[in-house]
Amino acid sequence: MKKKESDNYVCPSSLKKLNLEIFKEENDVVIEGILVSEDKIIFPIKKGIPDLTWPQELQKIDEETRKAYDKLAIDYDKYASIPFQTYNCDEILVRQKMIEQLNIKTGDNILEVGCGDGRGSEQIAEKLNNSGKLYLQELSPSFLNKALERLKKYEKNIEIEYSVANACYLSFPDNFFDAAHHFGGINTFSDVKRSLSELSRVVKPGGKVLVGDESMAPWLRETMFGKIMMNSNPLLKYEIPLKDIPTNARDVKLEWIMMGAFFILEFTVGEGEPEANYHINIPSERGVNHWTRFFGNLEGITDETKKLAYQAQKKSGLSMHEWLDKIVKEESVKFLDKENNI
Predict the structure, then answer these.
(1) What confidence tens digit (pLDDT) does each residue in 237-267 have?
(2) Cys staple from 323: which of 88, 190, 314, 318, with CB 3.0 to 4.6 Å?
(3) CA distance 184 to 79
(4) 148 close to 162: Cβ distance less than 8 angstroms
(5) How far apart are CA 110 and CA 124, in angstroms?
């Protein structure tokens, strides 16, 4: 970890500043040390890589995933291309297309969570075009070490920072990145909703978030193709977490790739929930606008009174909203004037 990077990390629990204590450094790189939160939580730095895992005692599914990935990392080269071969896809082209959708510009600040052994990270490094910064996070230290080896050739031209971390608790301040990416593991995350919310938190408004993983397309699940593949890989039964998309997501896009066996979920980060033009006049018999239709309701009336009201409204030439507003206001003023004169 470069010494100056300590200013860019925050506590993944409180999101407050971390203080750096250096035990060993070389050429402004922290080799050994700790990052300490205001609450005295200690995050170790070993061999130049900070461990920002939170919670430090992982949930069972995350701990099992970490152990499985640490074990898989040893022989991962044997397995990495199998999904692409199975679905007759060119791995590099698939990954390049995903990265294209992030709209990365030279000099951008990009985050990849769950980066694995860095296969997809290479495409981001290429896209940064010798100017920018890439932050790679991975829950498995063994996989992250493989990513570090793979990406060394790019470190002459772009800055790359590595950390061990849980994608559900990100150790960066709000609006820090221009885009964020993950592919290949979200269906094993313990809290997908929180992870998507965290990604949208750390990406600047207008920036892209793009995630993807296995999930057999709904229209293919009852086909022989779908049944055979889901039998071989149960993760293909994963239901896409549409309900977990954050409210500040804009221009949400969902597509299936690799013969419909993998999905890509993409959105642009906005600010807060959408806000429509609630007050535009609606030229209908009912009249009124969206806002008053929702907030302007009065207590219910009898069917007989409602029938009379519609007859009177039609003869008045006004919309129901205009007529009701006029009548209720007039009668209210009359009543109040009378009461006040007593």
Answers:
(1) 999 999 999 999 999 999 999 999 999 999 9
(2) 318
(3) 13
(4) yes
(5) 8
* pLDDT tens, position by position, 262-313: 999 999 999 999 999 998 988 887 777 888 888 777 677 788 888 888 888 8
What is the phi/psi pair of residue 219, to 5°?
-80, -5
Counting DSSP H helices and E strands in the chain, the numbers are 11, 11
Burial-class residue 342 by CB neighbours within 10 Å (0-12, 13-18, 19+).
exposed
Prediction pTM value: 0.88
Cβ neighbourhood burial of 274 (10 Å; 0-12, 13-18, 19+): exposed
Half-sphere exposure of 339 (CA within 13 A, CB side): 6
The CA-atom distances, in angstroms, between 40 and each of 7, 13, 18 are 17, 12, 10
Q: Which of 326, 332, 330 is nearest to 340 (CA)?
A: 332
Q: What residues are paired with 162 via a beta bridge?
A: 136
Contact 266, 199 (CB under 8 A): no
Q: Are 300 and 309 in contact (CB under 8 A)?
A: no
Please check the confidence at residue 342 and state whether its pLDDT lies above 80: no
Q: Which residue has the tokens 């430090």?
A: 56
| SS3 at position 209 | strand
d(C-alpha 262, C-alpha 255), whole Å: 9
Residue with token string 């949930």: 59
> Which residue from 218, 209, 224 is spatially nearest to 256, judged by alpha carbons?
218
